[in-house]
Amino acid sequence: MSDKETHENENEEKKINPTPSTEPKENSDKDANLEEAMVEEADFERNEETPVSAEEDKKEAEGEEKENSKEKEEGTDMHKEMDDAIAEESEDEDSGKKHDIEMKDYHAMSMKDLVNELQSLVKKEKIQAIKDHVEEIKTEFNAKFEEEMEQKKEDFLEEGGNIIDFQYSTPVKKEFNSAYFEYKEKRNLHYQKLKQNLNENLNRRLAIIEELKGMIGAGADMNANFKEFKELQERWKKAGAIPRDQYNTVWNNYHHHVEHFYDFLHLDREFRDMDFKHNLEQKLKMITRAEELAQETNINRAFRELQMLHKMWKEDVGPVEKQYREDIWGKFSEATKKIHENRQAHFAELDKDKEKNLESKNDLISQIQEFASLDITSHNQAQQRIKKIEALREQFFKAGKVPRNVNEETWSKFKETVREFNRKKNAYYKNLKKEQYQNLEKKLELVEIAEDNKDNKDMEATTPIMKKVQSEWRKVGHVPRKDSDKIWKRFKKACNHYFDRLHSKQDEENKEGIEAFEKKKKMLEEVKELKLPKEHKEALALIKTKISEWKELGRVPYKMKYIEGKFNKVLDHLFNELDLSKKDSEMLKYENRLQALDDADDTEKIRKEQFFIRKRIDETKAEIRQLENNMQFFSNADESNPLFKEVLKNIERHKQELETWKAKLKKLRAL
């Protein structure tokens, strides 16, 4: 082979995608002449039928050129994407493992769940296979933590804190940092070893290329050269992964020299044609498989297998005869294009689901916005809305991913609406705290009054003051929780101290009353066991005697007055045994009340008792009049009518009560 031929072959074979004609040159020229004639004939017919301006011709040509350029650009992008994917996959021979690890919906997980998932991946999976998963987890965790931290910062500033002093961390954040640090340590160690291996493999491959270059033009036996070439191919296949940024350059270089070697083998066509035939068969099988993958429903699996086919096409199988290269590459590219289109359609379908998620998230943001626009007027209302906002936040995180181009905008809108609500909530509680501190000042004043007066000796003047501060205390609202128990204990201690002194003094002053209570308590038990004589007068006289004896025992302290009620109940039982009229029994019992009023020598109490009895007399008269008026509505005024009979009975009962109240008033006036 001449130097000129060698140079021309090298220039031609350095092209990444060689496109030689698939037909002999003679036929190609004939076809070109025929096609040119057809075009001229078509132009002539068009000009005959419809005159077209030169400008329109130019526009049409530019349109066709743009369309062809667009198709070419799409094809270039498609193959570039495939080459990049192969380069990445080739760098890490275990990278295929990552496709078997489920990519969960990390967006819907809580921070604690994200930490657990990260720890599990770092512990159980190969470190080089979880990169995408870890980055996704990191993104979601940081977003959630940032939102929480921003809220805590706002709370801190609302309470008067200085931004310089703000620091925030949580146990779950520390857990995440620890798990992520462990991941980075393992990842760095892995890539240090990988980098060393990749560079060693790169040197081996470059050495193989140099050996291959040295074989071209060698004068050794062609059979020996071909055998050595096959050994180099096997060594190339086993040389291992190399850095991805070197992958395409090294492969193109190797491929160029392989094709150059095959051209060198034209001196021995038997070896070359045999290998070309084998390579053609292998590449046709790859085309068939690629066409089958174009029908595969599992898009991700089809794309991964297509990557493997491209890698085999480039690395494992050598070149074919030039007349077939463009044709088979075109078929392989066409199948690749279909798979690529299927993948794009799949992503478009996924984007439709993300659009639905976007609608859901925008709706949730609108609901949060509604709460954020409302004023908070009470603590209970604030707590209810906080729970609703939290529920809406959970729904937002579980609503799924949105299209990437609006992800940041949607997240920012969500955070802002939540913060708007939180600002209103914080403003409400800030005002509430202000009010609570005002209440605290009021209660502290009451505590001081109680403590200042707890040892006063003038109890007649102090007791109203202590009762008033107790009443005022109940009117004052809530105070800050941290101060509530402390001031209540001070106030309670002062009040209890004073009223214990007061009760002790009253007990001393009411010593006789306490003695009277003990005697009445004993007498009450005796009267309960009293057996009345059969003779009515004797029995009545005995009851009157017991009433007189009860009076003579004296007054009891105010807090022990309940014993009078118990004695009256026993008397009711005795009067029932005597079949005494209600009026008479009431008047006998009223003697006790009159005696107490007389002994108290309190004009105000007697006046109040008279007012009460007059009021009861007026009320009873009014009830009698109402009942008598009701009788006019009966169409059948016959005592045999149960309702009419019941009204008459009520009138009679009220008249008896009226007589009793009048008798009591008469007795009271006699005091």
TrEMBL record:
Basic and acidic residues bias (residue ranges): 1-16, 23-33, 44-83
Tagged with keyword Coiled coil: yes
rRNA processing in keyword set: no
Pfam families, sorted: DUF349
Region called Disordered, residue ranges: 1-98
Biased composition (Acidic residues): 84-94
Domain of life of the native organism: Bacteria
Keywords, comma-separated and alphabetical: Coiled coil
InterPro entries: DUF349
Stretches of the chain forming a coiled coil according to its record: 430-457, 580-671
Protein name per Swiss-Prot or TrEMBL: DUF349 domain-containing protein
Native species: Mesonia ostreae
Lineage of the species this protein comes from: Bacteria, Pseudomonadati, Bacteroidota, Flavobacteriia, Flavobacteriales
